[in-house]
Amino acid sequence: MTESGSASTSIWSRGMMAVIAAQFLSAFGDNALLFATLAVLKAFHYPEWSQPVLQMVFVGAYIVFAPFVGQVADSFAKGRVMMVANALKLLGAGMICFGMNPFVGYTLVGIGAAAYSPAKYGILGELTTGDRLVKANGLMEASTIAAILLGSVAGGVLADWHLTAALVVCAVVYAGAVVANLMIPRLPAARPGHSWRPREMARGFANACVTLWRDGETRFSLLGTSLFWGAGVTLRFLLVLWVPVALGITDNATPTYLNAMVAVGIVVGAGAAARLVTLETVARCMPAGVLIGVVVAAFALQHQLLPAYGLLVLIGILGGFFVVPLNALLQERGKRSVGAGNAIAVQNLGENAAMLLMLGLYSLAVKAGAPVVAIGVGFGTLFALAIAGLWIWKRLR
């Protein structure tokens, strides 16, 4: 189904609902596939330090393709870019399902995700405007986190039941996302006519990076979201090793349940941000960012399941309230300066570089034999200090 021209500014338009549905299915597949693939690594006795390496090859795809995916998103109808990206994810999941090297298959999923991200966020600024953009981002984050919640649990539970069945479900969900993308209106390309020579594309991306990092507001957003997502992905892998040490539970499902608690909290936090924060009052989100690190450090010291659930919900609430306004700020200012697709590609580069760095440090700490509880406390403390420093810098400006 296609249509040309401007889309409705309502966040409940047909186009917005199609984007949200496609995003839900795609994110569900991403998270279910991660835990199913982690179960593959356990089943075939890969070393523990290889688990974050799996995420690192995914993140590496974002970094390698960052100079190109923003231009792709802005040069074509973003709904169709999302469809092709989900088809790549489907191919990668199929490779893992048929017994091929999980790192190779997951890298292909990462390439699809790298192409998907600038289009999915960039299209929000084409479907709605102004303060509705914060609300649209809240809706997108709520859909994403609901998918993380259900996908993570489904991946872990299905992997405990039947590993092949878990992988097949992931492939089917990606196929559903491809179909959902067909329902997104075909809006005009935002910035067609760019050169497709790799050197010129890389130069254009470098110019977009310079433009956004020189602007004080977008630099603030880029730093905040990079720290948040780098911390988020590290926490996910920390949980996998923390559960058997702190709780004495060794199944695949419990870490997914705990990750799901973070997801529940982010839905609540994203909703609160949509109501309480506007593009003019983005700094209201900063105390929540500092508290994330404090609560992570407190969580790492727990040895009971019920308090752990509660603290992870709180981490999610704080995270949703922190990151949604920063995303909206970058999309609004980036759309006016370098194009929404390029802005999100620059954001992805920063976020995934932070993920790669944090995961690398985490892998080294695990390989060196550092206690997982000590890693958690140190990680939370450093995150709180980093966000506090960013907040102070923002106020001094």
TrEMBL record:
Protein's name according to its UniProt entry: Lysophospholipid transporter LplT
Source species: Jejubacter calystegiae
Subcellular location: Cell membrane
Stretches assigned to coiled coil: none
GO molecular function: lysophospholipid:sodium symporter activity
NCBIfam families found in the cross-reference section: PRK11195.1
Similarity comment: family membership: Belongs to the major facilitator superfamily. LplT (TC 2.A.1.42) family.
Record-annotated membrane-spanning stretches: 20-41, 53-73, 93-117, 165-184, 222-245, 257-278, 285-302, 308-330, 342-362, 368-393
Membrane-related topology note: Multi-pass membrane protein
